Amino acid sequence: MNKAGAVSVAGLTSEQKPKLNQDFAVSAQIPFGNIAVVSDGAGSGVHSNISSKCLCKTVIRTLQTDPKIDDIAKFSELIVHSVEKSLRALSRLSNIYQLEARITDFSATLLVAVQTDDHCFCAHLGDGACMFFNSDDEPIKISLPDNGEYLNETYFVTDTNWKTKLRCFELAERKTNCLLMSDGVTPFALRNKDPFLNFTKPLLNFLKKATFDEATTAVNAMLNSADATKVSKDDKSIAWWISC
Amino acid sequence: MIPDLVLQDNTNQRLPCVVLLDGSTSMDGKAIDNLNEGLSVLERELKADDIASLRVQLLILRIGGHNDVEVLTDWTDAIDFSAPLIEANGTTPLGEGVKVALKKLEEQKKRYKDNQITYNRPWLFMITDGAPTDPNWEKAAEKAVESEKKGKVVVFPIGTEHADFDTLNKFSSRGALMLKDLDFKELFVWLSQSVSAGSQTEIGSETQLPAISWGAVPS
Q1: Is B157 a domain residue?
Q2: Of B63, B85, B173, B218, which has the most beta carbons under 10 Å away?
Q3: What percentage of chain A exceeds 90 in pLDDT?
Q4: Which tens digits make up the pLDDT trace of B163-183?
Q5: Nearest to B8 among A190, A221, A234 (CB)
Q6: Are B9 and A188 an interchain contact pair (Cβ–Cβ within 8 Å)?
Q7: Which residue of A has its CA nearest to B203?
Q8: pLDDT at position A44
Q9: CB–CB of B203 and A196 under 8 A?
Q10: How many structural domains comprise chain B?
Q11: Partner B contacted by A218 (CB < 8 A)
Q12: Is the pLDDT of residue B204 over 70?
């Protein structure tokens, strides 16, 4: 079994109207496994919807063209390279279109999970969460949100010290199911510091059985539901792969 | 539809907010009546707000008496908040009040951390009609500004029209605001709307405060 997908929906304003989605989520299959990427553009960043998209696409392209990841050092190097490449591209874009943007206008978080022929890797900067599960859908490794002290603050690729806040790890297992999510989803997918199993188990179970279209339609509906909006009005994104 | 899926209803987050109120003799009369009416409005407005009523936590302090700082309402969820009655008598130990407020905020933040409760940056509203009467207020003012710089708290000094704004400005890098016509009712509607917005601020966003109808930046 090998399935992957990603869904991102816009949040609501305080007047209950849809706002510009500053999240981006994407997944892709590579010869030996999967890649999933989620980025959440900061609410204060005027162009952060562009940067979240640029980051996700650059990471995916980099990992697709250089899929031979031997170890965590190589993986970390590829992620740093991708982010630096994105920031240069955003800077060029800003100049070309005379956006008069500050670097903080491109603030965004980053979550990357990769499955290779014998390992899984994760890179995480800021909030959101990455969860790896075994074939019984029991969590085996979680990367939790990194907010600093306050809830409405986190770390972004545009921070001067972003490399020190980038958390990378590997998992010596290939057969995993994986969920990546932005901070609009973590409030109802996490209970304290653990995955909320009444959420993750039914979701993974459904994703195993569903076709791609069924999965994206159902996840989209769930993220747009009144219950989800009641918990969080933020943009919401989930990317996943199912391999066991 | 995804069968059997349940969303965790995570209301496990807080915005701690201290309201430091001047209960000195000079507040006697219309000012204290309006202040008490305003506090009732705060209670009503917060309880009517589904999200703020669960996320905002209030601590109400009164300064007055013989340079006393009195905890009128210890930390309480907005949904359980009952407006206290403020009396007007005594002095205005504003410096001591701010010191107590900052200390109580740090204690509450520790409690949140110990219980894995996430929280927004705390807010401190200080409301007076005069100027501090305690001798060490300047140290407290420096501490408030330093705490703001370190990102520990956001301080809102608010004075009525005859307050000493040169002094109040020293308690916050953002400066003091002037309450016109003792319109405490509008002030507390704004305060309620502000903490409601603050309790729902998204990651990476500044809280957008509502427009001020009750006052102005003093000239």
Answers
A1: yes
A2: B63
A3: 71
A4: 999 999 999 998 899 998 888
A5: A190
A6: yes
A7: A152
A8: 79
A9: no
A10: 1
A11: yes
A12: no
pTM, two decimal places = 0.74
Distance from the Cα of A105 to chain B's closest Cα (Å) equals 11
Query: Each residue of A15-25: pLDDT tens digit?
Result: 778 889 999 99
* Residue A26's CATH number: 3.60.40.10
- Give me the domain span that covers residue B162: 13-120+129-188
CATH number reported for the structural domain that contains residue B170 in this entry? 3.40.50.410
Nearest CB partner across the interface for A151, out of B3, B7, B118? B118
The mean pLDDT value of chain A amounts to 92
Per-residue pLDDT reduced to its tens digit, A162-199: 999 999 999 999 889 999 999 999 988 998 789 999 99
Q: Which residues of chain B have a CB within 8 Å of the CB of A154?
A: 203-204
Report yes or no on B194 lying in a domain.
no
Q: Using CB atoms and an 8 Å cut-off, which of residues 60-79 of chain A contact chain B?
A: none
Domain encompassing residue A192: 3-242
pLDDT band at A97; cut points 50, 70, 90? confident
Q: What is the mean pLDDT of residues A106-110?
A: 96
Residue of higher predicted confidence among A114 and B211: A114
Over range B6-22, report the average pLDDT. Answer: 84
DSSP chain B: --TT--------EEEEEEEEEE-SGGGTTHHHHHHHHHHHHHHHHHHT-TTHHHHEEEEEEEEEBTTEEEEEEEEEEGGG--PPPPP--B---HHHHHHHHHHHHHHHHHHHHHTT-EEPPPEEEEEESS---STTHHHHHHHHHHHHHTTS-EEEEEEETTS-HHHHGGG-TT--EEE-TT-HHHHHHHHHHHHHHHHTPPTT----PPPPSSEE---
For chain A, what is the domain count? Answer: 1
